[in-house]
Amino acid sequence: MEYRNVTKEAFNVAGIRAVTEWAGGVWGIVKADGSMERMQQIAGESKVTLGLCFGFDEKGHNDNMVGFFTELDKVENYEVVHYPESKWIELVTEGKISDNVLGNAWQYIHAELIDKNVITQRDVPTIEDYAVWDEENDYCKVIISIAVI
Which CATH superfamily is domain 4-148 in? Predict the structure, then answer.
């Protein structure tokens, strides 16, 4: 699996954050309760395609957020995460959702990059940008971004 090194200027992500029993659990919440549509109205041209992972607690629950890029430091009714200028690695994973393409990408990241000390992750949430997530056609394209030292 290939990744690229990039440098990003400081940026902000606004969205809805919660601790859920499963990875990415906030997606189900915002789709079910209408929050996704309300967020998209506020996001405007910036699409609500970002999934942030803050980590897992001792019970295995995932602290995660669904959101969008914003230039604002505060967005009423939403949490805003401020990312400093940093170096990042980006991986594009694409293929069948049913083949666990996203999970396989994370297995590679942990086994080949983090566990082998190829990269050292910064203490900021990772970002998954769901460029395409089409369950009906069993296809996804997700850009995984990890801030590194």
Answer: Regulatory factor, effector binding domain (3.20.80.10)
User: Cα–chain-centroid distance for residue 92?
Assistant: 12
Phi, psi for 87 (deg, rounded to 5): -85, 145
All structural domains of the chain with their residue ranges: 4-148
What is the distance between the alpha carbons of residues 74 and 143, in angstroms, rounded to a whole number?
A: 25
Whether 121 contacts 148, CB under 8 Å: yes
**Which run of H or of E encompasses 55?**
strand 50-56
Please calculate the CA angle 83-69-63 and round it to the nearest 5 degrees. Answer: 65
- As a whole number of angstroms, the distance between CA 76 and CA 49 comes to 19
Helix (H, G, I), strand (E, B) or coil at 98: helix
Read off the pTM: 0.93
What does each of the 149 residues of the chain score in pLDDT, given as a tens digit? 899 999 999 999 999 999 998 877 899 999 999 999 999 999 988 899 999 999 888 888 999 999 999 999 999 999 999 999 999 999 999 999 999 999 999 999 999 999 999 999 999 999 999 999 999 999 999 999 999 99
